[in-house]
Amino acid sequence: MPTEPPKPTVRRTRLTPEREAELYEAVLAILREVGYDALTMDAVAARTHSSKATLYRQWRGKPELVAKALRHNKPGSLEGIDTGSVRGDLHAMVCQADTEQMEKDTALLRGLGHAVHTNPELHRALREVLVEPEMGWMDEMLRRAVGRGELAADNPAIPFVAHMMIGGFLARPLIEDRAPDAEFLTHYVDAVIIPALGV
């Protein structure tokens, strides 16, 4: 029996960093404009003068593309922050983004809104690309503080530091109709999180 020749392996052409950044910016712009549910690969392809085939070669689908775009957009990370004190680390974290960036981030969260809770694939992609790496780095930061003797290992607030940070970021637009900024978040860290940690 004759056998079919093996099919050629599909090569995944690597985008240049500039082109990748352009695609991510377009994804985030559409997300702010219409929200996650109305964002389509067709719209991204049209906005970036790409083909859908190109997009699907680089990303498995819309959830991964959106998660990677958000990761790329993030102005900083806990990775590499080590000022020698937990207060210094938290201040360094909140000072990484300027006010304009935080306003954009607030608009992005509104654009994701309902979809995060109703789309399991998006939720999974966001956890893998954004949430879990940051939680790992935050755990490391808090372990260092325990190791230095700054924090008691059994402090009940330690597991809730990420919750408190996210709460401060999300609550200001809701309560004050203003985007959070570095000044607000720095005061929030000093008034809420540092006392909770007993520093």
Write the layout of secondary structure elements.
Layout (H helix, E strand, L loop, with lengths): L16 H18 L6 H8 L3 H7 L3 H12 L12 H9 L4 H20 L1 H29 L12 H16 L5 H16 L2
Helix pairs in contact: 1-2, 1-4, 1-6, 4-7, 5-9, 8-9
InterPro entries: Homeodomain-like_sf, HTH-type_TetR-like_transc_reg, HTH_TetR, Tet_transcr_reg_TetR-rel_C_sf, TetR_C
Protein name: TetR/AcrR family transcriptional regulator
Keywords: DNA-binding, Transcription, Transcription regulation
Would you write up a description of this structure?
With 199 residues, this protein is mainly α. It is built from nine helices and no strands. α5 packs antiparallel against α9 (182-197). 21% of the residues are buried.
Measured by DSSP, the beta-strand proportion falls in under 5%
Helix proportion: 55-70%
Give the class from helix and strand content and strand pairing.
Answer: mainly alpha
Largest sheet: none
Spatial gap, N to C terminus: 76 Å
Radius of gyration: 20 Å
* Number of DSSP E strands: 0
Overall pLDDT level: 85
Shape: elongated
Low-pLDDT segments: 1-12
Number of helices: 9
Order of helices and strands: HHHHHHHHH
Short description:
With 199 residues, the protein is mostly helical.
List the keywords:
199 residues, mainly alpha, 9 helices, 0% strand, elongated, disordered N terminus, DNA-binding, Homeodomain-like_sf, HTH_TetR
